[in-house]
Amino acid sequence: MTQQLEGKTALVTGGSTGIGFASARRLAEEGAHVFVTGRREAALDEAVAAIGPARATAVVGDVSRAADVDRLYAAVRARGRGLDVVFANAGTGAFATLEETTEEHLDAIFGVNVRGTVLTVRGALPLLNDGASVILNSSVRADDGVPAFGAYAASKAALRSFARTWANELKGRGVRVNVVSPGTIDTPGTKTIGAGTVPAAARARFAATPLGRIGRPEEVADAVVFLASERSSFVLGANLYVDGGENQV
Asked: Please, what is the end-to-end C-alpha distance for the chain in angstroms?
């Protein structure tokens, strides 16, 4: 069977663990060569080894730093095939009520989630091949007002808004911009939910899905592959929820 992304080049930020790693692996399984980036070199090396060195290239860096993003795209440019898929996945989150919110809290979350995504997509522009797919990783938390998660939710809502604007700005090049919005997914970032470090109201909300379970990274990765492939050729500016019905029913 023909692979959906044979001969394509993809980039996944935050690609060493969780949704990012699962997506990088699935994109590679569909034939793409995948650049993965993140801040931890050892974790990136493990990810590339698991995906297969012939199918993946690791570039260590922090997407909130312009110099690191420039270095990432220098590596992509050196390969000489441009980019067909960009999954701007890197993100971070922390809990703080409005009263507890500090400048440092805002800077940490908006620096990675918003500035990092803007730098990632802006930096990709000269390398995007005609018909490329850009996918932003938002969240159902952008919609539901979970207490003490305001900065994270606002940062993810910003990505939804950017996607609409960028879809209009890039459609003339045949570049499609879409969003995937996961619900609660079993990743390293959610391991503390049952350990008492997450507010009780948030724990209750995160555990309640119509399907009766939280999601797997691979389930989000399948949605990413769909948005990356020609099977979503008539999908533009959309927000694809992968949340087990958490915010839908």
From this structure: 36
The answer to whether residue 241 is catalytic is: no
Going from N- to C-terminal start, the domains of the chain cover 9-241
**What letter represents residue 24's amino acid?**
A
CB 133, CB 176: distance < 8 Å:
yes
pLDDT in tens, 76-97: 999 999 999 999 999 999 999 9
- Please tell me the class of the 9-241 domain: alpha beta
pTM of the predicted model, to two decimals? 0.94
Catalytic residue (choose from 110, 149, 152, 241): 152
Neighbours of 233 (CB within 10 A): 11
Calpha distance 20→13 (Å, rounded):
7
Residue 199 has pLDDT above 80, yes or no: no
Nearest one of 164, 116, 133, 180 to 11, comparing CA atoms:
133
